[in-house]
Write a structure and sequence with these properties.
Layout: H1 3-7, E1 26-29, E2 35-39, E3 45-49, E4 61-66, E5 73-78, E6 81-89, E7 92-97, E8 109-112, E9 117-122, E10 127-132, E11 137-140, E12 154-157, E13 164-167, E14 172-175, E15 183-186, E16 193-198, E17 205-209, E18 214-218, E19 224-228, E20 237-242, E21 248-252, E22 255-259, E23 268-269, E24 278-281, E25 287-291, E26 304-306, E27 315-323, E28 328-334, E29 339-340, E30 343-344, E31 347-348, H2 350-353, E32 359-360, E33 366-371, E34 378-385, E35 394-402, E36 409-418
């Protein structure tokens, strides 16, 4: 079945407007009751004015999130509201407050937790919550007393693992996917962890310690190092996102700043200074985010990735490594990573196939067959082209290959793929 024909079924996430937001632009929530801003890659700041975000002067915009499925849209959240802003041109915007009914919300940070699902930290109830944009319903993902106590202030969905990261006063916590017991990632950091994200390349946690004017990297082994040593220049870094070039974008009281990927150097201002609470980077081009873990191939776990950026009209390759040479393999494509054939994903394959540590991470809605190359270890690769026009299509992929291993097959990690 042709891949692009399969992707055409995702018609609900097709872009309908000419692109107004450009890759690398930074959307900014400015703690206003009605305004937000966009900082272009040129440094030009455009302010957008709406009716009162939440219908009252108490409802200030503290969080912003770019919507890759609707490339001209931003979600805005704050005290007792979540709304959608659609940008039609420079300074021209329409705004709709989501009909959340009786749900009481206080949004401190938002992140995507899958198609149409938004994870947010709610310091009003000190719990992590999930918004379903299809039904405008909210589900509490945590409840009761938690290790973060009454000082929850940030939260982030880790797309690599499906875990939930939580920040409070002095600590970072992790709620593993599908579990109810919270683990401590780091403690004794001092100050409020106002912003959280991950390094997409390494899986390390990146945290903003607002009152210390500090940004730290927390490795998967728990080692804490400074990306930004205490720097009064930024003035309380409240938010952080990874830019399209890998750098870090900080939203701070004194403005928006760029911090080099490796840290160390002083942050540089991005556009004119104005108070910033939250930032969200417009990615524009497509992207691919890994999640799950591959099982053993030839000598090492199988790893799946995509070569280069997903740019319209360009041709690229998705490939997995550590295979046996000249073996039959498949690329699997699905529109879901949560359910398939009445099974919850990820689905453990060991009881079914006799493998060791292998899982199915994606629904099987389409498949392509290939053969690993003759190297040892070998690579299984498939070329594909990015559509010329905007599609907004999002899907999931995984590789499997015949192998001289337990169960005679290996299964890679998976990718969440977003087309431009």
């Amino acid at each position: 079945m042709p891949l692009l024909r399969t992707l055409s079924t995702v018609s609900s996430i097709t872009a309908s407007l000419a692109t107004q937001l450009q890759p690398g632009d930074v959307a900014v929530a400015t703690n206003s009751t009605s305004d937000f801003a966009v900082v272009a890659t040129t440094g030009i700041v455009t302010t957008y004015s709406t009716p009162l975000f939440g219908g009252s002067s108490n409802s200030k915009g503290d969080a912003v999130l770019w919507d890759p499925a609707n490339p001209n849209d931003l979600l805005l959240g704050g005290y007792r509201f979540i709304g959608r802003a659609t940008i039609h041109g420079p300074g021209v915007v329409s705004y709709t407050r989501l009909p959340l009914g009786s749900y009481y919300v206080h949004v401190a940070q938002m992140s995507w937790a899958g198609p149409g699902k938004v994870l947010f930290a709610d310091p009003g109830v000190d719990q992590m919550r999930l918004l379903d944009l299809t039904t405008n319903t909210i589900t509490d993902l945590t409840s009761g007393p938690q290790p973060w106590g009454r000082t929850l202030i940030s939260g982030f969905f880790d797309p690599n693992s499906g875990d939930i990261l939580v920040g409070n006063q002095g600590g970072v916590f992790r709620l593993p996917s599908g579990q109810s017991t919270v683990a401590t990632v780091a403690s004794g950091l001092g100050g409020y962890i106002r912003g959280l994200t991950i390094d997409r390349a390494t899986g390390d946690v990146i945290a903003c310690l607002a009152s210390q004017n500090r940004v730290v990297r927390i490795t998967t082994a728990g080692t804490v190092t400074d990306l930004l040593t205490p720097s009064p220049a930024t003035g309380y870094p409240n938010s952080i996102e990874q830019d399209i070039n890998g750098d870090w974008i900080l939203g701070a009281v004194n403005g928006v700043f760029r911090l080099p990927y490796a840290g160390g150097s002083p942050p540089t201002p991005v556009g004119p200074a104005l108070a910033k609470y939250s930032v969200s980077v417009v990615r524009g081009n497509g992207w691919a985010t890994p999640f799950g873990v591959g099982c053993q191939g030839q000598g090492a776990p199988v790893t799946l990735g995509i070569d280069g950026p997903l740019v319209p009209t360009q041709r690229t390759v998705h490939r997995s490594d550590n295979h046996a040479p000249n073996q039959l393999g498949v690329a699997l494509f699905g529109l879901s990573n949560t359910a398939y054939a009445n099974n919850t994903l990820p689905l453990a394959l060991d009881p079914l196939l006799g493998t060791t540590g292998c899982s199915l991470h994606v629904a099987i809605d389409a498949a392509l067959v290939g053969v690993s190359n003759g190297a040892s270890p070998a690579t299984l690769s498939f070329p594909f082209s990015i559509p010329a026009g905007p599609t907004g299509a999002r899907f999931f992929m995984q590789h499997a290959c015949l192998e001289n291993a337990s169960g005679l097959t290996s299964w890679s990690n998976a990718l969440e793929v977003q087309f431009p």
